[in-house]
Amino acid sequence: MVNERAETSPVCVPADGVMLSGDLGMPAGARGIVLFAHGSGSSRFSQRNRHVAASLRARRFGTLLVDLLTVEEEAVDLRTAEIRFDIDLLARRVVGVVDWLGRSSSTAGLGIGLFGASTGAAAALVAAAERPDAVQAVVSRGGRPDLAGGALPRVTAPTLLIVGGADTLVIDLNQQAFEDLRCEREIVIVPRATHLFEEPGALDQVADLAGHWFEAHIGAQGRPMARAS
């Protein structure tokens, strides 16, 4: 079994006037970097996202799993569950991290992809709309892209929406968001999977879908790779 901790190192990222804690993994010869935007009470310690991140690193993508809330904000959110739905705040944090990736010595010049889960997917899409020259691809896993609202028509990065086949409400919400997107886009329904993709093999399907999407669309910054035929 891969020692996931050995593949990453802790970083502190300035964004939106605060310092965010993250784990950065950079394989040799990285072909791009994928930022994970968590939501709905999750964090960089999400085992599901760490599983996907390890799979992406095996494909030579760098990964950054970062907490979008500070320790103090997380404590408040645990009591109220309100901040996790503050899409404007989460999006500002994602934009700040995208800007940091663009200037950090270890990641500058790499094409950037965003992987969003739950409300983090909405934040990722808003950030993609705000940074069209930096963000080259977006993947949503069981996300709430509908919460990105008016930002959806402004997204230019190719966007993949992945939803569990048993997650009927979220399927409907993703289909609504899909209609508002004007970029290259696709919805994939993973059969029989529930919201958290806990069924055997479901998360591996998510990782494969995300990996293929990022491989098709992320290259050196400003020079997206040719799409797979």
Layout: helices, strands, pairs:
Elements: E1 9-15, E2 18-25, E3 33-37, H1 47-58, E4 62-66, H2 71-80, H3 87-103, E5 112-117, H4 119-130, E6 135-141, E7 159-164, H5 168-180, E8 185-190, H6 202-217
Helix pairs in contact: 1-6, 3-4
Would you kindly provide a written description of the structure presented here, covering whatever features stand out?
- With 229 residues, the chain is of the alpha/beta class.
- Helices cover 35% and strands 22% of the residues.
- The chain is built from 6 helices and 8 strands; from the N terminus they run βββαβααβαββαβα.
- It has helices at residues 47-58, 71-80, 87-103, 119-130, 168-180, 202-217; strands at 9-15, 18-25, 33-37, 62-66, 112-117, 135-141, 159-164, 185-190.
- It has an 8-stranded mixed beta sheet, with helices on both faces.
- Helix 5 (168-180) links the parallel strand 7 (159-164) and strand 8.
- Helix 1 packs across helix 6 (202-217) and helix 3 (87-103) packs across helix 4.
- The longest helix has 17 residues, at 87-103.
- The radius of gyration is 16 Å and the shape is globular.
- It starts with 8 loop residues before the first strand and ends in a 12-residue tail after the last helix.
Keywords:
229 residues; eight-stranded mixed sheet; alpha/beta; disordered N terminus
